[in-house]
Write a structure and sequence with these properties.
Strand order of the largest sheet: 1-2-3
Number of helices: 4
Strand content: 5-15%
Structural class: mainly alpha
Number of strands: 3
Largest sheet: 3 strands, mixed
Radius of gyration: 28 Å
Helix content: 40-55%
Number of domains: 2
Length: about 180
């Protein structure tokens, strides 16, 4: 039987024993929401034991930092929550007070210890690191392209030499320096 594994970038517990899953995703991935739901659900199930009362199941928060568009909207930070909507009337189910105690919606920055500024600083640092990585990647690609262009010009220069062209003609045609030929 095939058993699906669960992999996230960071899995931590806070002081209350609640579990925080953090995933940083650079590349677009099909079915990302389903994978996010799977990771959260699997974590909940992994922390349940036979005879374990449901009210003791730890809360699991999933924080996903995405460097691709998951949808469209004017904001850059979104939080989701479970909402029960009637299939026939489209009304929103009003949860009873006893059940409501078990459900607590948190703002994204509340998952991290500290205040909103700490969360914003964390996001800024991730953006900076991503920018540095992308700039380095772009620079490397440009260097590789230039190396490939020079290699191609040297191959052309060798063919021109074989056909009897002078060094001056080859330099004029390829733009190579004399020492590069």
């Amino acid at each position: 039987m095939y058993k699906k594994t669960n992999r996230v970038d960071i899995k931590a517990r806070d002081a209350k024993g609640e579990i925080i899953l953090v995933e940083i995703q650079f590349a677009r991935q099909h079915y990302f929401l389903q994978r996010m739901l799977y990771a959260t659900s699997k974590t909940i199930v992994e922390h349940m034991h036979k005879g374990f009362p449901y009210e003791r199941v730890p809360k699991v928060y999933s924080v996903n930092i995405l460097y691709f568009l998951l949808g469209t909207g004017p904001d850059y930070i979104y939080h989701g929550r479970t909402d029960f909507i009637g299939m026939n009337t489209n009304d929103h189910l009003k949860i009873k007070p006893m059940e409501k105690k078990a459900i607590r919606n948190m703002e994204a920055y509340e998952v991290f210890p500290g205040k909103r500024k700490a969360y914003d600083d964390f996001i800024d640092e991730l953006r900076y690191q991503h920018g540095v990585a992308m700039a380095a990647r772009e620079e490397m690609l440009e260097m590789e392209q230039e190396k490939g262009r020079k290699k191609g010009l040297k191959e052309i220069a060798a063919k021109l030499m074989a056909k009897g062209f002078s060094d001056a003609e080859i330099i004029d045609i390829t733009g190579l320096q004399e020492w590069e030929m």
